[in-house]
Amino acid sequence: MTEHGFDQIFPLGATNDAYAQYFTGQSYNAPLTDGSVPVANITFEPGCRNHWHIHHGRAGGR
User: What is the DSSP string of 1-62?
Assistant: First the structure.
């Protein structure tokens, strides 16, 4: 177990400062690949909210 109380499959990564404007709370960015299609694992602390994009037309008006 880690200090967060669970084992993670992917690394936590560094604080996601480059994209902090899209989050309320702390998130972490761990790049997994850097090829032509970059892939990253984003981890959210409890209470963190993502304001990256909106899904219009979803049930409940969200």
Answer: --TTSS--SS---EE-GGGGGGEES-EEEEEEE-SSS-EEEEEE-TT-EE-S---TT-GGG-
